[in-house]
UniProtKB/TrEMBL annotation:
Transmembrane segments: none annotated. It comes from the Bacteria. Residues 15-120 form the MaoC-like domain. Belongs to the enoyl-CoA hydratase/isomerase family. CDD domains: NodN. It comes from Nocardia albiluteola. Gene3D superfamilies: Hotdog Thioesterase. InterPro entries: HotDog_dom_sf, MaoC-like_dom, NodN-like. Pfam families: MaoC_dehydratas. This is MaoC family dehydratase. The lineage of its organism: Bacteria, Bacillati, Actinomycetota, Actinomycetes, Mycobacteriales.
Length: 150
């Protein structure tokens, strides 16, 4: 279910609330390869399925930053602001990667609006994202993502 708001200022009134859970997203080897090309991180645990099969994770895994980079998609999946000028990635307060994401697995994010406050430059919102792995016991990523709505 998507939380719908009229303006970014409406975020202030719902701070502390869980906004929803995204749909499952399958992580493919092609995504991992494209991310490796975009970032230059071609470490074999991500890009060499034959070698990775004998490595510590018994197969290739997604880059932690690939998982984190899904934050704008995750937030947009659970939050719709009708009168939106822009949503700017402003920063991160805390990020951890407790568990690897095996290629071929599915992940989803539970999104909570931790805080929202009016600043001179707009509404600053801090979203808590916890990425779950289908069938996993530990989260893939836990992050506090800061978004500025000018």
């Amino acid at each position: 279910m998507t939380t719908q708001l009229d303006t970014p200022a409406d975020l202030i009134g719902i701070a502390g609330r869980q906004l929803g859970t995204t749909d499952w997203i399958e992580i493919t080897q092609q995504q991992v390869e494209l991310f490796a090309d975009a970032t230059g991180d071609h470490q074999w645990i991500h890009t060499d399925p034959a070698r990775a099969a004998h490595g510590p994770f018994h197969g290739t895994i997604a880059h932690g930053y690939l998982t984190l980079s899904l934050a704008p998609v995750a937030i947009a999946d659970v939050l719709e602001i009708k009168e939106l000028t822009a949503a700017l990635n402003y920063g991160l307060n805390r990020v951890r990667f407790p568990a690897p994401v095996p290629v071929g697995s599915k992940i989803r994010a539970v999104v909570t609006l931790n805080t929202a406050q009016q600043k001179t430059s707009g509404v600053e919102a801090v979203f808590g994202l916890t990425y779950e792995i289908d069938g996993g016991t530990r989260p893939a990523c836990v992050a506090d993502v800061v978004v500025l709505y000018p």
